[in-house]
Design brief:
430 residues; 10 strands; single chain; two-stranded antiparallel ribbon; globular; 18 helices; alpha/beta; TIM Barrel; 8-stranded parallel beta barrel
Length: 430
Amino acid sequence: MSELELGKYSIGVGDRFAHQAKAQLQACIEAARAGVEVIPVWNKSNREHNIIGSEPSQTRVAADAAVKALGWKKPYFRDADHINLTTVDRFLASCDFYTIDVADAIGKPASSSAIEKFVRQRAGLAGTLCLEGVGEAIEITPELLRATAGKFLFAVEEAGKVYRKIEAAKGKGNFIAEVSMDETDAAQTPAELLIILAAIADEGIPVQTIAPKFTGRFNKGVGYVGNVAQFRREMALDVAAIAWAVSNFGLPKNLKLSIHSGSDKFSIYPAIYETTKKSGVHLKTAGTTWLEEIIGLAEAGGDGLALAKEIYAEAYAHREELCAPYASVIDIDPAKLPAPATVAIWTSDQFTSALRHDPHSPAYNSSLRQLLHVGFKVAAKMGDRYLRLLEANEKVIAKNVTENLYDRHIAPVFLGKPSPVAQLEHAEAK
């Protein structure tokens, strides 16, 4: 059996309730028809499974069923999203992609002997590195090498422990490994990323995707907040640093950037497309599918609209509880949240216009969208009542899911064809 290898372009799709796998896969089929192969990776974290009361096996079953139903012949994967040493066991039987999240270990020091060994072995990194494809070099001083080891080496050691636990269970080459460092306070510089990749290589992790934290703010399901030109420069340097690391550290040749919480960052999509045409990229679209389910229910009217309004009312009532776990990736202005009594008399069009991410619509409400984004716990508590309405309104929901994923994410990121919304937002951001 040949080793599993992630393709050049891949998209991580969240499916909170495991009902939209076919609609999501249809978007990848549309991409293939347009001439680009985009590999689907269904991701769901341990936290999401705990909130919903689901198991990783259910996501695997849904993905397999969609692949069979639509005749998908290309690779696809199931991601154990943001796992660590304490949570990985639950995913070993059903997953073949592992996002090893070590953000919580950043800043914890490795042993002094481990740091000294790394600094000694990698002393050759100190100096000026000229990177191919960018107009500037990376400068690594001995002081930066040591400081970076002090900040990140322990985290990489933790990643190694998780990787070896997975390898012991599944066998070498039978899964894709990603190392994630994005859910932390400070962005890693391209120089730090290169040093981190040296540590990953020394740890023996055949990482195929790496998820650093970028500058700017990547809130859930809404637009990018930051300097687009700075993001473009930083990403280009990261891509060049990865290419240098592949050539010099013996890391997998298909190693590429993974962009987390990348969904709906329309203003940076052109930069991602231009920067990663050669290297490839993995984009995670987080919970936008869940939002498209709510949009579809509201669009359907009747019981679907009534349930959407009820979910909003419950989310409004429990805002602080729902937002607490996501505080670092949402910015909700409570004053801009409409009262449930106001929403209760909305038409389908009023509800969907407030929720659908169109920054140029006067009805769009980013605070409402973010609240519902983290409000899937409300639907989870409804159990079969929510799932039955998903099934009853499958056609309208699936249409929204496929169009959203293809038109707003796949087309601009992998085909360089921004949607009208993306074009407008990009023009404003310049």
